């Protein structure tokens, strides 16, 4: 295909890996690209990749990426003739599409009428139902109050699912098992929906247990041509957020009537798109019965590009060539017609995608923030990485924690999964925790490998997943690296490494790793470090740049040191941070333990990460019970409910909604009532999360 210029300049109204991916397609088309960025993203990869970059505001998304005036101003400054919205943020925002239309700027997406009908779950569900498309039983009317939803819930039936009408990605969705849970879940769902999408409209659906989540990619132009590009299986989800996606669906691939069902679901998706005169790239999502794949229910239509679009690009062949969905979005927006028909769409092989998140799966997937110190991304034949990672990148609490996607193609599903596993094993990200180890455990699970998938599988498997902890040899390596780093910046009097006139003695150290404190003894040697842990001795020596030996054996662990002294270790997709505790911190912990006595919980409730207080549920001086929600903090587009560690009287320290909090900041103190609980501060495992 000839890559003639379609627009002179296109602005990408997004960030992260999707902005990088769109910018690269624009460059291939010879189009000048404009990035926008918030203060938190000044050093981001998409800013460096674009031809022009325009600052649009502070780190908070509502003041930058969600600000329509800021995006329009950036268009005027850069001379952009069109805007690609990526996904999330303003991608399905009706007011944004209208504002661009009024300004004479092309929106690389569907028309306003399509966004209005399909971008809202209530309207889209009612619309397709009127066109004979089967939908899940529920109540979906605009403007329903909590009281009206509660009154209608019994007719829907339990268990049920609360869903926000706007947005997607599982945010604001809550499973409710009984009437007693409904009121509190509705309040949380409204807060999350209002914060994430600027619209707190909710509706209810009957919960379909253990379904398959299958979606169909469609493309439509302004010349009456609409095609589908096969289906994607997105059943591996955590809290309604997709984790692993693949194309085609193993459910259909392994079914005797798979080709017929694929054609029927594809035809239903095309019919849904045509019913609103859809233009551009879109995705129609279905719940599909695992036992009877011919039975499917419309869920929603996403009027934008999807996170998982690369697996479709990897398997679809048009006239023996791969397809670039971003390129076709641009061409369609410029008025070009599709140059192929449905019968020319072929599926070749199998592709699987894993979403890489900055988070801690071993501790309830708490998001991880920090500075990226080192990155090694997977490479090789049939491996694709869509990423925003670069050394020095700050992972902040303002945005979604997804930082990259790793995609592998194979001639069949088994080969695709095997290649993806090797690609993940070779990926190194130091400076924050990631879910890479978890992804490897997931794709090598026997049920996943066999294609026995459903949307609740991760929830069932998670309690049995065995995340590895650093070995004592790796802790010894971390101690060696920590002392080596300190030795380069401190005088002999400050190092605390046991040096003295006469015999050289060891220094007692404490390190924090995986939320635990470990004690060890360190002593410098002529060639390295002697470290003792639980009476076991380790001799650690540097064997060259990035190479180490422990007790004479080579140890292949990637390492890096952060500014706070944390030593980061990574091997085969596993990552850990080992943080040495200084004497003042050790003393403070010991004194705190003495003050509260043996066997008592700490009265201090600390924020696990930086974020914004969105609700304070109790008042100063109030009597609270163990496990009661004290405050709700939002970070990385998730709510984190802070719980009381014990029965007692609470002091919230004048905390109020809208306050910004730092990591480890004390947000409440509970005057203790006698308890037999263990001697620890409230930790991340004491938190409840809602996505």
Q: Give the helix/strand class.
A: alpha+beta
> Which regions contain 5 or more consecutive residues with pLDDT less than 50?
677-691
Q: Kindly state the percentage of residues in helix.
A: 25-40%
Could you tell me the mean pLDDT? 89
Number of helices: 19
Q: Strand order within the widest sheet? A: 31-30-29-28-27-26-34-33-32
User: Could you give a short account of the major beta sheet?
Assistant: 9 strands, antiparallel
What portion of residues belong to β-strands?
Answer: 25-35%
Report the span from N to C terminus: 42 Å
Radius of gyration: 27 Å
Shape: globular
How many strand units? Answer: 43
Can you characterise this structure?
The protein has 691 residues and is of the alpha+beta class. The protein is built from 19 helices and 43 strands. The strands form ten sheets. It has a nine-stranded antiparallel beta sheet, covered by helices on one side. Helix 7 crosses helix 8 and helix 13 (413-425) packs antiparallel against helix 14 (436-443). The longest helix is centred in the first third of the chain and has 19 residues, at 179-197. The protein is globular and about 80 Å long. The two termini are 42 Å apart. The relative contact order is 0.08. Residues 677-691 have low confidence and may be disordered.
Which key features would you list for this structure?
691 residues; alpha+beta; 9-stranded antiparallel β-sheet; 8-stranded antiparallel β-sheet; 43 strands; 32% strand; globular; disordered C terminus
């Amino acid at each position: 295909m000839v890559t003639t210029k379609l627009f002179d300049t296109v602005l990408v109204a997004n960030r992260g890996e999707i902005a990088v991916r769109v910018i690269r397609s624009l460059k291939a088309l010879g189009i000048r690209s404009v990035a926008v960025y918030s203060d938190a993203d000044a050093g981001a990869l998409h800013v460096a990749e674009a031809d022009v970059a325009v600052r649009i505001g502070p780190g908070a998304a509502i003041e930058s990426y969600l600000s329509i005036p800021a995006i329009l101003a950036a268009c005027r400054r850069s001379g952009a003739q069109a805007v690609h919205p990526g996904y999330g943020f303003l991608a399905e925002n009706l007011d944004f599409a209208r504002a661009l239309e009024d300004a004479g700027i092309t929106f690389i997406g569907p028309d306003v009428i399509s966004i209005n009908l399909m971008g809202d779950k209530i309207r889209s569900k009612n619309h397709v139902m009127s066109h004979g498309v089967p939908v899940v039983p529920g109540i979906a009317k605009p403007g329903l109050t909590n009281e009206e939803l509660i009154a209608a819930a019994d007719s829907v039936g339990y268990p049920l699912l609360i869903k926000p009408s706007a947005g997607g990605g599982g945010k604001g969705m809550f499973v409710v098992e009984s009437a007693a849970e409904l009121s509190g879940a509705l309040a949380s769902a409204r807060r999350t929906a209002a914060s994430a999408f600027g619209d707190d409209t909710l509706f209810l659906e009957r919960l379909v247990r253990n379904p398959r989540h299958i979606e169909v990619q469609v493309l439509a132009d302004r010349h009456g041509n609409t095609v589908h590009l096969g289906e994607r299986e997105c059943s591996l989800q955590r809290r309604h957020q997709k984790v692993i996606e693949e194309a085609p669906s193993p459910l259909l691939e392994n079914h005797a009537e798979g080709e017929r069902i694929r054609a029927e679901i594809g035809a239903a998706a095309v019919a849904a798109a045509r019913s609103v005169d859809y233009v551009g790239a879109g995705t129609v999502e279905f719940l599909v019965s695992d036992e009877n794949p011919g039975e499917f229910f419309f869920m929603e239509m996403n009027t934008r590009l999807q996170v998982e679009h690369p697996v479709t690009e990897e398997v679809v062949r048009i006239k023996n060539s791969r397809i670039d969905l971003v390129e076709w979005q641009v061409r369609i927006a410029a008025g070009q017609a599709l140059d192929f028909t449905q019968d020319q769409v072929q599926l070749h092989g199998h592709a699987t995608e894993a979403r890489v998140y900055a988070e801690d799966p071993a501790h309830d997937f708490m998001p991880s923030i920090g500075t990226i110190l080192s990155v090694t991304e997977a490479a090789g034949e049939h491996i694709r990485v869509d990423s925003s990672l670069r050394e020095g990148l700050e992972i902040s609490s303002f945005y979604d924690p997804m930082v990259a996607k790793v995609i592998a193609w194979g001639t069949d599903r088994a080969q695709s999964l095997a290649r993806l596993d090797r690609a993940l094993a070779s990926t190194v990200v130091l400076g924050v925790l990631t879910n890479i180890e978890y992804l490897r455990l997931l794709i090598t699970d026997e049920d996943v490998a066999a294609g026995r998938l459903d949307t609740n599988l991760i929830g069932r498997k998670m309690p049995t997943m065995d995340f590895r902890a650093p070995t004592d040899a790796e802790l010894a390596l971390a101690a060696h690296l920590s002392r080596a780093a300190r030795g380069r910046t401190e005088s002999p009097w400050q190092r605390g490494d046991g040096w003295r006139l006469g015999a050289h003695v060891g220094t007692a150290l404490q390190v924090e790793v995986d939320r635990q404190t470990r004690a060890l003894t360190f002593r410098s040697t002529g060639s390295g470090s002697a470290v003792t842990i639980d009476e076991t001795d380790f001799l650690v020596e540097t064997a060259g740049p990035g190479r180490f030996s422990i007790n004479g054996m080579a140890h292949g662990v990637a390492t890096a040191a952060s500014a706070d002294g944390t030593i980061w270790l990574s091997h085969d997709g596993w990552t850990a941070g080992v943080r040495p505790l200084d004497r003042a911190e050790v003393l403070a912990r010991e004194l705190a333990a003495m003050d509260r006595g043996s066997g008592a919980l700490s009265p201090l409730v600390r924020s696990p990460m930086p974020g914004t207080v969105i609700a304070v549920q109790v008042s100063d001086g109030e009597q609270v019970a163990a496990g009661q929600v004290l405050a709700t903090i939002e970070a990385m587009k998730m709510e984190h409910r802070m719980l009381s560690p014990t029965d007692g009287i609470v002091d919230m320290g004048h905390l109020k909604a809208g306050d910004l909090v730092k990591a480890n900041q004390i947000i409440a103190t509970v005057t203790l009532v006698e308890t037999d609980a263990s001697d620890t501060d409230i930790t991340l495992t004491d938190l409840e999360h809602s996505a």
